[in-house]
Design goal:
The chain is mainly alpha-helical and about 190 residues long. It has a domain of about 130 residues: Orthogonal Bundle (Tetracycline Repressor, domain 2), CATH 1.10.357. About 70% of the residues lie in helices and about 0% in strands. The chain contains nine helices and no strands. The longest helix is centred in the N-terminal third of the chain and has 23 residues. The radius of gyration is 19 Å and the shape is globular.
Length: about 190
């Protein structure tokens, strides 16, 4: 019987999934390459071959998840309340997203992955364009409006320090409605 051919893309995908779980649970400093390799059922040398060092692997994980958010929850500057509601839904369904962002802020505040910075600049530019066309309030700078919207969307997700550990479906719906209404009031002209 001949050995199975190696599927590099499948191995990379397993490594990224395992790294996402590891970094979300333990942060950058606490993550262990050995645990990532074991969870992915891969040789740890492949992590270095495919991604470089642990910091580069974390950057790849963050860029992958930033891209995923951009694809699945595109910003709609003319409807920031709707955007905040969709982002809330995404974050509830993907709690690792906020954990990864929190570890990034805690451990590498001055060294963010390029994808994250580009995402924030793109969103602020879209808000600025909507403000220029009078489709959105100009009471705040684009950066402030983005920061407030993101903070409100994050406020009640299960990984937030303000949210109870368990929320019923009705409680989640009420929190989502509150987020949408708060952003609506924030953006009212």
């Amino acid at each position: 019987m001949s050995p199975q051919p190696r599927d590099a893309e499948a191995t990379k995908a397993r490594l990224l999934q395992a790294a996402t779980s590891e970094f979300a649970a333990h942060g950058i400093a606490g993550a262990r390459i050995e645990r990532i390799a074991a969870a992915a059922k891969a040789n740890k040398a492949l992590i270095y071959t495919y991604f470089g060092n642990k910091d580069q692997l974390f950057d790849t994980v963050m860029d992958t998840h930033v891209t995923r958010v951009l694809d699945q929850v595109p910003i709609t500057p003319e409807d920031l309340p709707g955007y905040a509601g969709r982002l809330f839904d995404f974050l509830v369904a993907n709690p690792h997203q906020l954990r990864l962002a929190t570890w990034l802020r805690l451990e590498r505040a001055h060294n963010e992955p390029e994808g994250l910075g580009a995402s924030m600049r793109q969103k602020a530019a879209a808000i600025a364009e909507a403000q220029t066309g009078d489709r959105l309030t100009s009471a705040f700078t684009p950066e402030d409006l983005l920061a407030f919207t993101l903070a409100l969307a994050n406020a009640w997700v299960p990984t937030s320090p303000m949210a109870p550990a368990e929320l019923t479906a009705d409680q989640l719906d009420a929190r989502r409605s509150a987020v949408v209404e708060a952003v609506r009031r924030l953006t009212a002209q």
